[in-house]
Known about the structure:
Helix 2 (41-57) runs antiparallel to helix 3 (63-78), helix 3 (63-78) packs across helix 4 (84-95) and helix 5 runs parallel beside helix 10. It is globular, with a radius of gyration of 18 Å. It has 10 helices and 6 strands. 35% of the residues are buried. It folds into 2 domains: 5-16 and 101-227, 3-Layer(aba) Sandwich (Rossmann fold); 17-95, Putative phosphatase, domain 2 (DNA polymerase, domain 1, Orthogonal Bundle), CATH 1.10.150.240. The protein has 229 residues and is an alpha/beta fold. The chain has a 6-stranded parallel beta sheet, with helices on both faces. It has helices at residues 17-33, 41-57, 63-78, 84-95, 105-112, 126-136, 148-151, 158-167, 183-192, 219-227, and strands at residues 5-8, 117-122, 144-147, 176-180, 196-200, 214-216.
Amino acid sequence: MKYHTAFFDLDGTLLDYKKSEANALSAAFGKLFGNNFPDDLIPVYHGINTLLWEKYEKGEITNKYLRVERFRQLFSHYHISGDPEEFSSLYLGYLGEGGFLLPGAIALLESLNGKIRLAALTNGITGVQKSRLSISGIEKYFEDIAISDTEGVAKPDKRIFEILINRMGLESTEGVLMIGDSLSSDIKGGINAGIDTCWFNPEGKDPGEITPDYTVSSFDEIVLLLTSE
Length: 229
């Protein structure tokens, strides 16, 4: 087989982050402000959060700043009087309970288990990601898990890939494939680290200027790519 090791992104690739995010937002908002929250709360928050995560991935802001600033901006947007730090704490607690998997994720990992080495590489908050992995039941499939909050560096910085490569005792990046749904962090990060990349793109988005080695729209294609001779 061409690849002996696969690095998997988590959110949007194996874990259903959108569902976890929506549930956590609704629960935290209901806890502090009652259930009468704006109809467009989730898309508005998603837009704010996405822009801040892009800045975090570029190293322009810290994870600690991101955690609170997104809710400070959300409260400002809706003219809500509340404590963004308190809301952030509540939200992260609920988010950590969201171990929802994308359909077929377990079958994918089962198909690869024992055939190639598997590791997870995620930009996220340590406690939240560890909790979600544990609840989801997929933690057992990974030989190693690198979380940006723990490692002190985030995708697309090549250093987080190098940390994982060194910990796994890999002699080079040859035979390693990075699989993820984010062009800006997973694919660009893999390219920065000299690793082959596979873009998981079930929605058929335009790749723009970033060119992955492979583009797939289903888990079956990933299995075929990794297990073909």
